[in-house]
Amino acid sequence: MALLLGEISGRLSQGYLARPLMVDRGMKRKPNATVYCPETQVTHFDLVEASQRVLAFDTLAQVAYSGAAKQELLTLLGDQGVRRAMQAFGASISSGPLELRVRHLDALSTLFEQGSCEDSMLAQWFSHMGPPMPAVLLSLVQKPFPDLRMAALRTFSSLLSHPFAIQIFLATPSFVDWLLDPSTEPEWEAGRQKADIIRGLLANGSPLIDAELRLKMRAYFVAPKKDPHVEMML
């Protein structure tokens, strides 16, 4: 099966896509391009050239941006087709060149950014990426590579807007410790992104976040009190 980017531009006019596709950052938009993006370029991403690999995952994320589009893609590919695509997503994010992993994380962030479909469908799509994926994402957000960390933070921001992901990550070892640690993101942009994630969780009102954790999350935004004895020594 193949998807024409020309068909994708038609979906854009119907509100299915987040934004017009670009072959790469900095390049002009080509909404009417006639480049093929076959399903095999996603499921066999390791066999295609890097730019086509990026385009394939970006296209998948754009096509399935909205809840209605996810339902349509599921009908088009079937359960096994979606499973293979999400397994490829998981594999591409878990290994490979750094710059490609950043791009695939951004595509994953787009894929889960919206979705008014049932949470069970989103949970199933995420589960197709494999049981290690929560730990993989937590590992990536702690790597000493700013672009990779930011891409992982954007992915967390998208995922944690859904109840299934809140449940998964709260149960992931070390996630809460990382979330509540204000020292993990010394860069301003990354720190702001992480703070926005916590604000989003607080605003979510999820019953999965108990009163104790909610207090700790609010305390994240309270500046630590200065010790007067230490100040006198200084």
TrEMBL record:
<dbReference type="Pfam" id="PF10508">
    <property type="entry name" value="Proteasom_PSMB"/>
</dbReference>
<dbReference type="InterPro" id="IPR019538">
    <property type="entry name" value="PSMD5"/>
</dbReference>
<dbReference type="InterPro" id="IPR016024">
    <property type="entry name" value="ARM-type_fold"/>
</dbReference>
<comment type="similarity">
    <text>Belongs to the proteasome subunit S5B/HSM3 family.</text>
</comment>
<dbReference type="GO" id="GO:0005829">
    <property type="term" value="C:cytosol"/>
</dbReference>
<dbReference type="GO" id="GO:0043248">
    <property type="term" value="P:proteasome assembly"/>
</dbReference>
<protein>
    <recommendedName>
        <fullName>26S proteasome non-ATPase regulatory subunit 5</fullName>
    </recommendedName>
</protein>
